[in-house]
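Schema walk-through. Below, the input block comes first and the output block second. Nothing else is stored per chain. Lengths vary across the set, and this one has 283 residues.
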Amino acid sequence: MAEAEIPVAPSEGTSPIRVYRHRLPARIWHWVNAVTLLVLLMSGLMIFNAHPRLYWGQYGANPDYAWLAVGSTPKTGFLRIGETRIETTGVLGRWTDAKGVQQTWAFPGWATIPTTYSLADGRRWHSLFAWVLAISLTFYMLWSLFGGHLKRDLHVRRAEWAPRHIWHDVKDHARLRFPKGEAAARYHILQKLSYIGVIFVLLPLMIATGLTMSPGMNASAPWLLDLFGGRQSARSIHFIAAWLLVAFFLVHIAMVLLAGPVNEVRSMITGWFRLPPERSAGR
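--- output ---
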């Protein structure tokens, strides 16, 4: 089905035009993925709390130089990136729990699964939902490829690669000017690039680096260690990719709120999207 053939619901008079924007597999994967990534992030932060330092290379321990560390002194909490140190007392490193007790985990309990320190439980949650991510992503990528979603919705056409076209889209976003009419039913260039980056780069990278940190995979697929430059490098890349996904999520939520949250969320539940009316010539 080509973009011009998106199903349109009949309307009467001046009723808003509705188009079938999101197909069932995309909607199911969207919500499954939202829950899965939230659990993975929170359980991953619990795992990070066990050793809140990041290194490059194969090995890393307390005496080794860490390019990133979250820690505490007797009175403060801090985040150190390279040689830059940021005081984070009350948020990271040293914070007060619901019972008024000061804790010195890197990330506070409200941000982790479980909420009390347990490396074993954090790993169980993380491993379970890592499988959910890997399986659901595989099926979604296959559907995108063979079901036409990639070609129909995400394919970046030659004209869209033009710097002028990309810059125009950037300016429209900066000015909070969102597409109207039929153009609102299609993905624009920034959406395409961000979705492709998440689906085909960041999420597979998270899975691959996660596998690289597994001793079992080190034995069966040692080439992963060579690919990422060692287990500690894989852990650092895993951490960076996770926060890039968080950044994508925050921007995504902001765009949904600014573009019209009721219409956007409803379309991701039912599939039907109401086209915003075209601007009048005088606007």
